[in-house]
Design brief:
single chain; 354 residues; alpha/beta; UDP N-Acetylglucosamine Acyltransferase, domain 1; eleven-stranded parallel sheet; ten-stranded parallel sheet; 38 strands; transferase; lipid a biosynthesis; UDP-3-O-acylglucosamine N-acyltransferase; N-acyltransferase activity
Length: 354
C-alpha cells in the first residue's frame, strides 16, 4: 500500500522509538507484507518460523528485534516490540481521515439534544431527545442514537449502528456497522409454563478507547449497567449479555458469547467462539483458547482451554467428574507399574516359555 507521501527512515524510527541500522535517509513510500514487500516498502518481522522469508525479503526496510537484525541485509529499525511498532508505523503512514463537521439535511434531531459544533452526521441519522454528542464525533449514515445517550469526543460510529436510550460511550471509541448497544437483555421468569419478561432498566457504560466490531450486541443491564472498561476491544459478532462487566484492555475474538452477570478481568485475551456461562468470574490476565466452554469461575491468571461435547445432563456430569480424576488415576497407574517392575526385578530373571 502506497503512503500519501514519502518519509525518511529516521523519522519513522523516532516515531516508534527505534534504532536505525542502515541509511537513516532512506525514503519509505509504502507498507507491504514481508514476502511481497519491494524497494521503498517497510514491513515487520517477529516470527522465528519465518526466518527464511526475512533473509530473502526484498523490502526496503524491516522493523524487527535485535536478535534478528543480522538476518536482514537491508535497512532496518530495531525495536523491542516489532508488532506494536508496526501498528504505530501504520498509524503514522496512514492516518485516519478527519471528518469535516456538518449535519446532513436528512438527519433527524429531536428537541433538547446537545450537539457540539464539530460533530459530523451523515444521511438519515436519528438522534432522540436529551442525547449529548461531543466534539469530533462522526455518526455515519443510518445511525440511531436513543434518548439521553452520551457519546464522548472523537468517537466514530459506522453505518447502521444502533445505540439505545440511556447508554453512555466514552471518548475515541469505534462502533462498527450493525452493532447494537443497549438492547434488552435476555431476562424472563418462568411461571406456570409461561415466561414473564423482566424489564431491563439498566444501561450500557462503555469507557474510552473501546472498539466494538460489526454486528456485535451488548445488552443493557437489568437494574444496573453492563460495563466495558477503557481499552476493551471486541471483534465482530460477539454477544455480551446483561450486567456483564469486562475489565480494561481485554480483547475478545469473534462469535464469542458471554452470558449475563459474568465478570471478566483486565488484560484478558479470549479466542473466537468461546462460550462463557453466566454469573462466573474470570481473573485478570487470563487467556482462553478458541471454542473453549467456560462453565465455572477462573480465579487465577493462566491459559485455559477445553470443550466437552454435549451429552444427556446426568452422563455429562459423570464424564466431567471423571475428567477431574484422570490425573490422579494416571499417577496411581504409574505407581503400580513402577512397583510391579521393581517386584519383578527382585524376584530374579523373568520366566521365558519354550
Amino acid at each position: 500500500m502506497r503512503a500519501a507521501s514519502a518519509h525518511r527512515l529516521q523519522d519513522l524510527a523516532q516515531h516508534i522509538a527505534g534504532e536505525v541500522r542502515g541509511d537513516a535517509e532512506y525514503l519509505i513510500t509504502g507498507m507491504a507484507p514481508l514476502d511481497t514487500a519491494e524497494a521503498g516498502d517497510i514491513t515487520f518481522f517477529q516470527a522465528s518460523s519465518l526466518r527464511s522469508c526475512l533473509q530473502s525479503s526484498q523490502a526496503g526496510a524491516v522493523i524487527l528485534s535485535s536478535e534478528f537484525a543480522d538476518d536482514f541485509s537491508g535497512h532496518c529499525i530495531v525495536v523491542k516490540n516489532p508488532y506494536a511498532a508496526f501498528a504505530k508505523t501504520m498509524q503514522y503512514l496512514f492516518p485516519v481521515a478527519r471528518s469535516e463537521p456538518g449535519i446532513h439535511h436528512s438527519a433527524q434531531l429531536d428537541r433538547n439534544v446537545q450537539i457540539h459544533p464539530e460533530v459530523r452526521m451523515d444521511a438519515f441519522v436519528k438522534v432522540e431527545a436529551g442525547a449529548q454528542i461531543a466534539a469530533r464525533v462522526w455518526l455515519e449514515a443510518g445511525v440511531f442514537v436513543g434518548a439521553d445517550v452520551q457519546i464522548g469526543a472523537g468517537t466514530h460510529v459506522y453505518p447502521g449502528a444502533k445505540i439505545y436510550s440511556g447508554c453512555r460511550i466514552g471518548e475515541r471509541c469505534v462502533v462498527h456497522a450493525g452493532a447494537v448497544i443497549g438492547a434488552d437483555g435476555f431476562g424472563f421468569a418462568e411461571e406456570n409454563g409461561k415466561y414473564l419478561k423482566i424489564p431491563q432498566i439498566g444501561g450500557v457504560l462503555i469507557g474510552n478507547d473501546v472498539e466494538i466490531g460489526a454486528n456485535t450486541c451488548i445488552d443493557r443491564g437489568v437494574l444496573t449497567d453492563t460495563i466495558l472498561a477503557d481499552g476493551v476491544k471486541i471483534d465482530n459478532l460477539v454477544q455480551i449479555g446483561h450486567n456483564v462487566q469486562i475489565g480494561a484492555h481485554t480483547v475478545i475474538a469473534g462469535q464469542t458469547g458471554i452470558a449475563g452477570s459474568t465478570r471478566i478481568g483486565s488484560h484478558c485475551r479470549i479466542g473466537g467462539q468461546v462460550g462463557i456461562t453466566g454469573h462466573v468470574e474470570i481473573a485478570d490476565n487470563c487467556v482462553i483458547a478458541g471454542q473453549s466452554a467456560i462453565t465455572h469461575s477462573l480465579r487465577s491468571p493462566g491459559v485455559y482451554s477445553g470443550v466437552v461435547p454435549a451429552h444427556e445432563i446426568t452422563r455429562w456430569r459423570r464424564i466431567v467428574a471423571r475428567f477431574d480424576g484422570l490425573d490422579t488415576l494416571f499417577r496411581r497407574v504409574k505407581n503400580l507399574e513402577k512397583n510391579s517392575a521393581h517386584q519383578a526385578s527382585t524376584d530374579g530373571e523373568p520366566f521365558h516359555g519354550e
